[in-house]
Here is the input.
Amino acid sequence: MKTRAAILSDFERARPYSQSRPLSIEDIELDEPQYGEVLVRIESAGVCHSDLSTIDGILTKPLPIVLGHEAAGVVEEVGPGVTRVAKGQKIVFSFVPLCGRCAACVAGRPALCDPGGRANLAGTLLRDVRRFHRNGEKIGHHLGVSGFSQYTVAAEESLIPVPDDVPLEIAAVFGCAALTGLGAVFRAARVEPGTSVAIFGAGGVGLMTLLGAVVAGATRIVVVDPVQAKRNVAQQLGATEVLDPTSGDPSAQLREIAKGGGVDYTFECSGNARVFENALAVTAAGGTMVAVGIPARSAKAELAPAPFVLGDRTIRGAFMGGAVPLTDIPRYVALWRAGKLPVERIVSGTIGLDGLNEAMDALANGEALRTIVCPNAR
Here is the structure.
């Protein structure tokens, strides 16, 4: 069958992407689903920093590849052996396929699924295949999803069913921003009621981290971001204070707010090494710093070990928020249904596939939170 999709073919385009056009929108071939695979009609896909970092060459993938990893849609067809989903069902994608059998999956850490991680690095589906083609050339799958396409074929292990009442125009957010930001709070840090939180970066993931901190009962939540509009949204969503890091040393500003002390839980959501250092610097004795944003592999941060030994501090990473998608996505949907998780508030607007290059510029310039791509919009 044919599908219209956004393809990245090289890492060499300079910004602004509205002019260099790194993403080409093309009609390509898509195979029918085979054993353990599902054909999905994509209804929404979020424009995320991980997509931007792939275009920038910070996160490299085999090229060419159909981008998009935060997505939701409807099952159109199931291949032989599929048991997790049925035709007509609404689904959200997990951007790590969950084999369910490797040591990480069995230990309850599916974000570290070994077969899923290897497939993602290779740009294939879980069973080591590619289903996109362009003039006889195989095209890769982005993190098992490839949400910037009208249709995609995915391993059933990448799909999480969601209730019929979840609007598909916002459902995509549950697949990355919510999964990562909320997971960082609930899974990685395990934020306790009455504690203090500082969040560095107020993009989609940072704001979901903020919403998680609100649900967890943190009583002081400070959000640090250089963009005024994002700080405004953070305040609307429950931040007790916001800081502009360009107006002075954010570590000093946070210590002043904390009356000379530190913060119980700090979250670095920007993927910036200097910001990582700032988050470390304000983590209180006995506190936890969680690295959520993905920096370039070459990025280095300075760390003095003594304060973390003497102050019994914890530093940990949280890939995909340390989430367990099969249980966490339904729980986060339940929080949304109960009015406690207004994910729609972080959506900046909707576009079609033709607006993707411009959307990447808006994301890079800090002008957007979560732009939603609707590949099948008429």
Summary: The radius of gyration is 20 Å. The first strand starts at residue 2 and ends at 8. The domain at 182-319 is CATH 3.40.50.720 (Rossmann fold).
